[in-house]
Amino acid sequence: MLKSKKILITGANGLLGQKTTELFRHETQHEVILTDLHENAFESRGFDYFPMDITKKDEVKDAVKKYLPDIIINTAAFTNVDGCETERELSWKVNVDAVKNFIIASRINSSKIIHISTDYVFDGKTGNYSETSKPAPLSYYGKSKLAGENALITSGIDFTIIRTMIIYGTGKNLRPNFAVWLINMLSENNQVKIVDDQFGMPTMVDDLGWALVKIVDLNKSGIYHVCGSEYCSRYEFAVKLAEVFKLNENLIMPVKTGDLNQAAERPMNSSFILLKAETDLGIKPLNVTEGLNLLKIQLGM
Ligand SMILES: NC(=O)c1ccc[n+]([C@@H]2O[C@H](COP(=O)([O-])OP(=O)(O)OC[C@H]3O[C@@H](n4cnc5c(N)ncnc54)[C@H](OP(=O)(O)O)[C@@H]3O)[C@@H](O)[C@H]2O)c1
Fold first, then answer.
1. Distances (CA, A) of 222 to 53, 120, 219
2. Residue owning the nearest CA to atom 38 of ligand 1
């Protein structure tokens, strides 16, 4: 019989935070305590929620002292990749200093930290990255996320880092992720320009949430790559989405990354090798069509 753990989930109002909360609450015996920067996005109040700015060292320390979590799952981050280029100070505070705050606070109760990182720690020149591949971030977002990872790796505390990419899914009051934005645009008959030279493995948020459950239940530490099982360009993903949601794929215009003039440089091919996660965690992430069909059901479309 698994011992029930007390788990503090940060970023609980975000895309991954909401799914993680839902899975731990409904599919496990673990106790969850939730926090995010602002008020609660959930309507039901059958569990603990408190607002907290994770960049504030004392707030983090007080929370850990009060709740004494066995595990801290940190899904909170400054996730706007282009925004990180212009808001460098704030993005560093959230993606690096906050991780250090959790490391310091974790010593109060010997809490384990499970942290979420990104494919943007790689330069995307070769793809097929494993957990031992050498990071070389191109953007400030990637640099800050790598510094957050390194803070954990050198901390001496028990940690797990999950690197993931292109998360899509649904939840309440969320900023639209790529898939949801695309559904909205195509449903309203808007033309969209989608890059056909950026390749990755889009990740249905449910797969990531389940990987977190497995990490906790199997007590796995170290670095794990977790993403969807299919490699495709953003354009190919968009076309499949149009097929699954029966939307007009002629509205999707292929463009090159250079045409978009984005502030942050993107890795062109950041595909992951999933073998470690599949073997250690026993997970089998969805391919694009499976993931989009699940999203369609969840959206009631
Ligand atoms: N989304 C992707 O495609 C993707 C890809 C690779 C890796 N990741 C990583 O996966 C994780 C989860 O991503 P996500 O898409 O679920 O993110 P998200 O939806 O943007 O959620 C992040 C949450 O963190 C909160 N937050 C920001 N600053 C904070 C602060 N100072 N104190 C407390 N909370 C704060 C945000 O609140 P506000 O909304 O109020 O700012 C938001 O609710 C992140 O670590 C991200 O770097 C995401």
1. 26, 18, 10
2. 37
